[in-house]
Each structure stands twice: as structure tokens, then as C-alpha cells.
């Protein structure tokens, strides 16, 4: 019966088509929600921010936009506050990231030992990470307070002069770094710990047989074994340091927080962005800072890639 | 060239802006950000209010009283601690047209900006009956050029000097408030001179004469009708001799080490009050409540209030109703009631915020008020007299609040960093340029 035959071939064909759509198309359908959300909440704002950054526009009157082309960028380039904020972002980033990762490495190494109550210590090391920035920064602000803070009190107890933690540049940056270090060390330690536990035990046994000390084992087995995780944490910390905002804002409190101290001594790029947008109400300039930050991150990663490629080219 | 963009795009930007600001706007949690104001629910009128600091309506029980007298009204008040944070959130919400309260507090430093840029977003009070009792200059600050009244005045900020009697005694200075006022009568320079004597003669330990140079600066600047802007709206802070004079005297005080190097209303200031690290503070009337609360029971009676060298107005607020409010008329009625002479007098008695209502100021019950905390100082008399000395004209500018903060920071540079005063002035001018340009 040809009619039936054609209909079955039709059905078969249609089935094959559906099957092909299913196989080829379904993955797109499954990843689509992310990209739709990404387009709406990441890509669109990114593009729109760049559009705003080419205008002069105030927060109170967002409907009045004046086209200024790249004036905002030129102005930012010539603005000493930008270079000051960039410098502060880098110095605070370095003095918070380096000790933080080193301490995390040490902590992870210790947690990796067989010991009683290890679960308790692992959970405990995550507690600072679970604390909100606001709460942590507020508590530290009180500790670092000039006249009645605990840290100056402790310094006085051992006969040292009190330090004006907020007003002086380096003390302020160190104090802010302390908050960052306190919050993130445990988190990084747990990442390292997870990586360390994936290192096969026989490497340690082999090293022990060769007579390697604990320290030698750490430097020659553990660290190379978790190298990719270390790179990962460095990347994460760099992004985090570039966006540093909550800690210095709360550390300064009020108008001083927004401008990163009376002398901008701890103003980061994030704070500069906020000051332009929500204190001076200049959305165009604020968007320009946002784009400068984004471009900086891109620059850092391109440079990092290049260095890596040069290095691998040299070794091979 | 200014181009107008569609409102939907505007809304998207505003939403993004709001998201950014909200991450910081403490004290606005739990509210419905999507709608404006209250509404009518189960036969009840719900009126929402957004305020900051200690405005006194909730604290002195006035809101409760209104609810009791008007059983069909339900008031929901939300109070942010810090005005800067509050205003930033208000700005973003006004820009987005969402998340506003029916009634919004407006601080004097922001009044001009609202009048200039957002008059169309606030309801008009010109036609509300029984609102002709305010000090004329107060009312004019919130009135647009074409006569639209965007809000009603709450308090004003006449000034005095709060001082520690026990410290004055130890420094060999008079302690009686009349005699203390005589020490610096008529000139802020004398106030600083007394400070030099205090520093020289006080042997009781590490106590500074005044809390912050910025307090003195504000007190002096606010004594003039024109401060940072002239009546035409031009920025004149760098040419105004009043500002320069205030800057120099405040810098003198800072350089002579007369200040405790604190920042008012910032961390360190409150414990400074509690532990008595300074002997005087220039105090607008609304600051009395703060001092009493933070200095605590232990220092009760040690503080007193003396007349300031010159009259000035520092601070004060307004209550406005947003145009979009679904319960606009009810909200306007509530604002008119809250700012009526009787209610203003009530707030003054309870917490010391001086009425902006001429009628309330002249009432005997206001004149008789004394402060138990400040050794029974006759604050009704002192601040009542100080209110009369406020210049009749008070020119406000668009960025007054921001410029005030910037000057405070500039003085902090001299106080804490030891920056030379000219250099600090340069920096301040640059920052003002950035902030207003």
C-alpha cells in the first residue's frame, strides 16, 4: 500500500528531523537560559555603561544626556585621582593577596595532616568567609579606632605609640588588607586542601623513602601538585583586589569612606567609581571608571597569557 | 547638545543605578522596591515615610498619636541612620521613579538641588490650609521660583556652644553659662583665644579644647546669608570672604592643636563624647540630643550650653510628599499636622530640635523649655534668641551638602595630616570643581 508506505517514510523522515533537532538543538536550548540571563544582566549593562561613559549625564536627571565623545576618558587619564586610586588598588591588592595566599598555603598544609577534630578546623576556617563584608569591616574598624580601639590599646600596653590607622596612608592600607586577609585566607586554604588531597599518597611515600624532610616534601611534592589551583586562586584574588570596595568604604565611614580618606590615601578604583556616581552624581564619569577597570583586567590577563606563552616557548 | 531619551531606557539605567546604590543603602531592607508609597488596604490608608537621623516624629511618639487620632491611617516609617546614605538612595529612586515613600525627608543642604532639578516630582503645599506659620526664610528655601512649595519645614539649626563645666573649672575659666558666653561674645576669634588659654592652663590630662575644626568652620560660614553660592546660583565659595575667614580661623585652631582631630558623626566622635576627650563643641540645637545620648548618664550635668559668639543656622530639614504617591492628599495632611506649631513645640520639649514655625518659636511653652541633661540650661531662651540672630536671608546652593563635606575633609587634612593650609585649600578647591563640574 503505497499511501501507507509514503506516510510511514514521511513519519520516519519527520522522526529523523525531530531526532536531529533533538540531538543538535537541545544542547543550545539547555545553555540558552544562561546566555539569555547573561545578555540581559551582563552584556547589556556592559554595552550601556560604555554608551553612558561617552556622555555627560547626572544621576538626578538621567534623561538629559550630553554627548561628549571620549572627553571622560581623556579627563580620567589626566586625573591624578585616577592614578592615585590605581596605585592604591595595586598596593592594597599586593599587601592583601600575597600574605593571604601564603598563609592559606600553610594553613592548608597543616589541615592536611591527620589530626583530631580536623572537620572542626576546616569548618572554622570557612567562618570568616561566611561573614558579611559589612559586619567584618565594622568590627575591624572598631578594633583599629584611633583613641579607643583595641589594637592601639594593645600597642600602648607594650609601650608603643598609638597609630592613627585611618588618617595615615600605610597604616590605613594595612588595616584594610587585614580585613581582606582575615576574610579570604580560610577560603583559599580550603581550595588548596581539596587540591592537596588529590595528590597520590605514593608520591609522599616515595619522597619519604628518598629521605625528604616534611619541608622538602611540601616544596617538592605538595606545591607542584597543586600548581593549577594556585594559579586559579591568584586569578580570583586579582579580580577581587581590583574590585575592592566594601572594606575601605566601611573602614572610612561617611564622607571619608566614599573618598577613601581625607587625603584619598586608601581610595581604590571601586571607591572612585562610587564617588563619581553616588557622591558627585556624575554617571558618565562613573561609567568611565568602570570601563577603565574592565580594560585594566583585560590588560592584566592578556599580559599574563603572553608571559606564559613566552615562557612555554622558551622551555620547549 | 542635550538629547532626550525615551523613558523606558531611562528606567533601565535607573534600575541599574538603583541596584548599585541599594547594595549600600543600609536600612532600606524589607521594603517593596517596585512600587511607590503605600496605598489603601482593608479600608485603611497606609502612608509610608522615609527619614534619617533623629527627626523626632517617631521618637517622640507623634506618629503613634496621629494613628490614634485617625484610626483609618496606618503609618510606616523607615529611618536611615546616615543622611548621606539616605539621600543617595533617594536620588536613585527619584531617578527611577520607583521605591519611593509617600513622604520623604529633605535635608537643608539638599533643598536647593531638589528645588532646581526635581520640583516636578514633589507635590505642592501652596494650597494646604494652615501652613502660613513658618519662618519666611525657611519656607522660601523649599519654594520654587514660580511659587510651588515642595515641602514643609521641620526644625532649624540655631547654634550655641556646648561645653564641659568641670573642664572649664580645672582650666581656671568661668563655668557659669552667662559668663562663659561673655568670654567670646560677638566674635568667633575670641572663642579660639579662649581655647589657647584652655590649652595652656588645663592640667587634667589629654583633653582637647574642641572636637573638630570643621564644627567651628560650619558655625562661622552659616552665619552669613551667602555661603558657597550667591543668590544668582553662581559658585562663589572661593571669592566669598566669609568662607575664607572661617577657613583661616578653623585652620588656626587646628594648627594650634586645639582640636581633638575628630570627624563629627564619624567613629571616634561618640566615644570621644563618652570619655570626655574634648571640652567644647559648637552645637546646633539638634545636636543636644546626640550629645546627651552618647555622652551618657555618667556625664549628666557636666555639660552646659552657652550662647554662641554669632547667630547662624546649621541644618534643619523639610518633609515633602512625592507627586506619584497614591495617597497624596492624606500624606500632605499628615505632613501639615506633623509640622504644625503644637507638634514642633512638642518635639522641642522632648528632644531639643528648634521649631521652624514662627508661631511655635514665639509660644511661651517653647521659651520656658530647659534641658535637664545640660544642667537645666534654659535652652528655650538660648536657642530662641539664637534663632532671632539667624540672617533673614539664607541663600542655598545646589551642592551645598557636598561642598560642606569637602571642606570638612580639607580641614581634616590640616588637622590629621599636617598639610599646609594653602595646599589643603587647593586640594579642596580641586575636589569641589570635580564634584560640581
Automatic annotation (TrEMBL), chain B:
Residue ranges that the Swiss-Prot or TrEMBL entry lists as coiled coil: none
**PANTHER family of this UniProt entry?**
ARABINOSE-BINDING PROTEIN-RELATED, SUGAR BINDING SECRETED PROTEIN
Q: Which protein, by its recorded name, is this?
A: Solute binding lipoprotein
Tell me the superkingdom of the source: Bacteria
Name the Pfam families for this protein: SBP_bac_8
Q: Does the keyword Lipoprotein apply?
A: yes
Q: Give the keywords, sorted.
A: Lipoprotein
Amino acid at each position: 500500500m503505497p499511501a501507507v508506505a509514503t506516510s510511514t517514510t514521511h513519519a520516519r523522515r519527520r522522526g529523523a528531523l525531530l531526532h536531529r533537532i533533538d540531538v543538535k538543538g537541545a544542547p543550545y536550548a539547555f545553555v540558552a537560559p544562561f546566555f539569555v540571563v547573561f545578555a540581559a544582566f551582563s552584556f547589556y549593562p556592559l554595552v550601556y555603561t560604555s554608551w553612558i561613559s561617552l556622555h555627560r549625564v547626572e544621576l538626578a536627571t538621567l534623561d538629559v544626556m550630553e554627548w561628549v565623545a571620549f572627553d571622560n576618558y581623556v579627563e580620567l587619564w589626566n586625573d591624578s585621582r585616577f592614578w592615585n586610586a590605581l596605585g592604591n588598588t595595586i598596593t592594597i591588592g599586593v599587601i592583601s593577596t600575597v600574605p593571604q595566599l601564603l598563609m592559606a598555603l600553610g594553613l592548608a598544609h597543616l589541615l592536611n595532616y591527620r589530626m583530631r577534630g580536623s572537620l572542626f578546623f576546616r569548618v572554622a576556617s570557612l567562618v570568616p568567609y561566611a561573614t558579611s563584608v559589612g559586619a567584618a569591616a565594622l568590627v575591624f574598624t572598631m578594633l583599629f579606632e584611633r583613641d579607643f580601639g583595641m589594637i592601639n590599646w594593645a600597642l600602648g600596653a607594650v609601650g608603643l605609640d598609638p597609630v592613627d590607622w585611618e588618617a595615615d596612608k600605610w597604616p590605613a592600607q594595612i588595616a584594610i588588607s587585614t580585613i581582606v586577609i582575615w576574610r579570604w585566607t580560610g577560603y583559599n586554604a580550603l581550595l588548596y586542601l581539596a587540591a592537596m588531597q588529590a595528590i597520590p599518597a605514593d608520591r609522599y611515600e616515595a619522597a619519604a623513602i628518598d629521605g625528604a624532610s616534611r619541608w622538602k616534601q611540601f616544596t617538592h611534592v605538595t606545591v607542584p601538585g597543586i600548581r593549577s589551583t594556585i594559579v586559579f586562586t591568584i586569578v580570583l584574588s586579582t579580580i577581587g583586589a581590583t574590585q575592592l570596595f566594601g572594606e575601605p568604604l566601611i573602614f572610612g565611614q561617611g564622607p571619608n569612606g566614599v573618598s577613601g580618606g581625607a587625603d584619598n590615601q586608601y581610595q581604590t578604583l571601586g571607591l572612585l567609581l562610587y564617588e563619581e556616581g553616588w557622591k558627585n552624581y556624575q554617571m558618565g564619569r562613573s561609567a568611565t571608571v568602570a570601563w577603565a577597570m574592565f580594560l585594566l583586567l583585560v590588560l592584566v590577563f592578556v599580559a599574563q597569557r603572553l608571559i606564559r606563552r613566552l615562557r612555554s616557548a622558551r622551555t620547549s | 547638545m542635550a538629547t532626550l531619551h525615551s523613558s523606558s531606557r531611562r528606567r533601565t539605567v535607573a534600575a541599574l543605578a538603583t541596584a548599585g546604590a541599594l547594595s549600600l543603602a543600609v536600612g532600606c531592607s524589607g521594603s517593596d522596591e517596585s512600587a511607590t508609597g503605600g496605598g489603601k488596604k482593608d479600608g485603611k490608608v497606609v502612608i509610608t515615610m522615609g527619614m534619617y537621623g533623629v527627626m523626632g516624629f517617631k521618637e517622640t511618639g507623634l506618629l503613634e498619636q496621629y494613628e490614634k487620632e485617625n484610626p483609618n491611617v496606618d503609618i510606616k516609617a523607615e529611618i536611615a541612620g546616615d543622611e548621606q546614605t539616605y539621600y543617595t538612595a533617594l536620588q536613585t529612586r527619584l531617578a527611577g521613579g520607583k521605591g519611593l515613600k509617600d513622604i520623604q525627608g529633605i535635608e537643608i543642604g539638599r533643598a536647593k538641588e531638589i528645588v532646581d532639578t526635581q520640583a516636578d516630582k514633589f507635590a505642592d503645599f501652596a494650597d494646604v490650609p494652615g501652613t502660613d506659620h513658618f519662618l519666611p526664610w525657611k519656607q522660601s528655601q523649599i519654594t520654587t521660583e514660580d511659587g510651588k512649595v515642595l515641602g514643609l519645614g521641620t526644625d532649624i539649626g540655631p547654634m550655641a556652644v556646648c561645653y564641659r563645666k568641670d573642664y572649664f573649672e580645672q582650666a581656671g575659666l568661668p563655668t557659669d553659662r552667662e559668663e562663659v558666653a561673655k568670654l567670646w561674645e560677638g566674635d568667633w576669634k575670641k572663642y579660639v583665644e579662649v581655647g589657647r588659654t584652655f590649652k595652656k592652663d588645663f592640667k587634667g590630662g589629654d583633653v582637647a579644647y574642641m572636637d573638630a575644626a570643621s564644627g567651628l568652620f560650619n558655625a562661622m560660614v552659616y552665619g552669613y546669608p551667602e555661603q558657597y553660592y550667591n543668590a544668582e546660583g553662581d559658585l562663589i565659595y572661593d571669592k566669598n570672604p566669609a568662607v575664607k575667614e572661617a577657613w583661616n580661623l578653623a585652620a588656626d585652631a587646628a594648627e594650634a592643636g586645639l582640636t581633638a582631630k575628630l570627624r563629627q558623626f564619624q567613629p571616634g566622635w561618640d566615644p570621644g563624647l563618652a570619655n570626655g576627650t574634648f571640652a567644647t563643641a559648637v552645637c546646633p540645637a539638634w545636636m543636644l540630643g546626640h550629645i546627651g545620648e552618647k555622652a551618657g548618664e555618667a556625664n549628666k550635668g557636666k555639660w552646659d550650653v552657652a550662647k554662641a559668639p554669632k547667630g547662624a543656622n546649621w541644618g534643619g530639614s523639610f518633609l515633602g510628599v512625592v507627586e506619584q504617591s497614591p495617597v497624596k492628599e492624606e500624606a500632605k495632611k499628615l505632613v501639615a499636622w506633623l509640622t504644625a506649631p503644637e507638634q514642633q513645640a512638642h518635639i522641642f520639649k522632648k528632644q531639643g530640635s528648634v521649631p521652624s514655625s514662627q508661631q511655635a518659636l514665639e509660644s511661651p511653652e517653647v521659651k520656658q523649655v530647659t534641658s535637664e541633661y545640660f544642667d537645666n540650661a534654659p535652652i528655650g531662651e538660648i536657642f530662641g534668641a539664637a534663632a532671632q540672630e539667624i540672617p533673614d536671608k539664607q541663600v542655598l546652593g545646589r551642592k551645598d551638602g557636598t561642598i560642606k563635606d569637602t571642606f570638612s575633609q580639607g580641614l581634616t587634612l590640616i588637622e590629621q595630616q599636617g598639610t599646609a593650609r594653602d595646599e589643603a585649600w587647593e586640594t579642596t578647591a580641586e575636589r569641589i570643581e570635580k564634584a560640581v563640574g
